[in-house]
Amino acid sequence: MSILKDKVIVVLGASSGIGAWISKYFAENGAKVCICARRKELLKNLTNEMNQAGYNMIYRVCDATDNAEVFKIATDVIDIYEKVDVWINCAGQNKAIGKVYELTADEIWEEITIDLRSSINGVHSALQKMINQNHGIIVNFCGGGAAYPHLYAAAYSAAKTAIARFTESVSLELKNDNSNVKIFAINPGLIYTERTKELCESESGKKYMPEIEIAFKEKKCNDTINVAIFIEYALMGKLDDCVGRLIYTSKDLYEEMNQNNGTINSDTGYIRLIE
Description:
Largest sheet: 8 strands, mixed
Number of domains: 1
Structural class: alpha/beta
């Protein structure tokens, strides 16, 4: 039986891309999934597809940068399912590409605001419910921007680095309280999605990040399945040694786990920003 069976999972940023794909995977493997984003039609279509196939999915339209809207989702999920086992924050954007002095300050702040506020709102709302039930897993998407400086993506890197440090700090709080709630930050790697496709086709993407399109053509990218497997391993407790850390969900990580009886050492398989 799948570890996902009857788990209640909320995915913030699930109208397309990684969020939509993993939501579908979770539902197909027995989870009760609430998908959330701004684009109602896409959410509705995926929900109808899953429910018509006999799976359990609901959707909520929200702006992830609005804390009141995100908190209402957490409340609705608890009212319907009486618990929330996993909360995933993968809403965001990566559009402020280029030299900082060529971008407007508003473009830079918009990117930082959307990426950072959506994760913080998700964590804050999830914790309000998970602390009371004393269990749950929260996952923040950080991307490569948190692992190393991104040339021509300063706003994205700043936001994602802040999310990683926020994750570490919240994890320390939970540990200090002896809470069973766990929080992780993950770098899903380069994955072909609607967002990365738009980036490749944009004028700024072609000018400043042509290597991304080359990587896709040469199939040098990650597989979305690794993100879903990460959630399964977290639910199994196999990643407890890396709670609060930024983990790269690469194929190598799972090969390493398979070679070590399904566990990873806290000194490998992740990137620590500051020791």
